[in-house]
Amino acid sequence: MRTDSIVFAVAGVFFGLVVGWIIGSQYAGPARVAPPPAAQVPPSASAAQPPRPLDEAQVQALRSAAQADPKNVQARVQLANLYFDAERYGDALTWYEDALRLNPKDVNVSTDLGVCYYYLDQPDKALEQFDRSLTIDPKHAKTMLNIGVVRAFGKQDLKGAAAAWQRLIEVAPESPEAQGARKMLDSLRSAHPEIGGAAPATKGDR
């Protein structure tokens, strides 16, 4: 699982800004979350730091390994990860799909694929892929965290986002993802009291 493939890492940086944007845009019709009018996808991790340069030698070595062995899942996952880190999400998607075809039960690859769809401005496909991830592992914390982010930022479905994050907190309350979800919920409910409810506290919060 890519540590930076959680779209929450991106959303967290912009959450306060985007919550305000959602409030302002709800009455103006559909609009994209991305600040620049010409942008077609939400800002990626490059907003905080530049993408990692692509190691072409490593790419070539992994491509050779993948071509030499049509069943080499790991080479395909590593290739996808390299492209993801370089923010070449279309290329990453291709290799995640190939790896998942060989190992359809890999929940991490499934969710990474969903994140690629999101960054390629396909939030519906991202959510469909996350649903597939949850059929593999119904308690996969990173998947639930990402569902909430895509619903909030990609679909402007704040109630759906809150429900996803609440579910995450219930099934994995001590996880780092739940801590992030709790912060997102607190901010969301501060801006939208009508969503209601309160995120359960962790043991350390009691």
What does this structure look like?
This protein is mainly alpha-helical. The chain has one domain: Serine Threonine Protein Phosphatase 5, Tetratricopeptide repeat, CATH 1.25.40.10. It has nine helices and no strands. It has helices at 7-25, 56-68, 73-85, 89-102, 107-119, 123-136, 141-154, 158-171, 176-191. Helix 5 packs parallel to helix 7 (141-154). The radius of gyration is 18 Å and the shape is elongated. It starts with 6 loop residues before the first helix and ends in a 15-residue tail after the last helix. Residues 8-14 and 16-48 have low confidence and may be disordered.
CA-atom Rg in angstroms: 18 Å
Number of strands: 0
What is the CATH topology classification name? Serine Threonine Protein Phosphatase 5, Tetratricopeptide repeat
Order of helices and strands: HHHHHHHHH
The CATH homologous superfamily is named Tetratricopeptide repeat domain
Largest sheet: none
Strand content: under 5%
How many separate helices?
9
CATH class reads Mainly Alpha
> Could you report the average pLDDT, rounded to the nearest whole number?
78
Low-confidence stretches: 8-14, 16-48
What proportion of the residues is helical, as a percent range? Answer: 55-70%
Net shape: elongated
Briefly note the structural class of the backbone: mainly alpha
The CATH architecture can be given as Alpha Horseshoe
Count of the separate structural domains: 1
What's the layout of helices and strands?
Blueprint: H1 7-25, H2 56-68, H3 73-85, H4 89-102, H5 107-119, H6 123-136, H7 141-154, H8 158-171, H9 176-191
Helix pairs in contact: 1-7, 1-9, 2-3, 3-4, 4-5, 5-6, 5-7, 6-7, 7-8, 7-9, 8-9
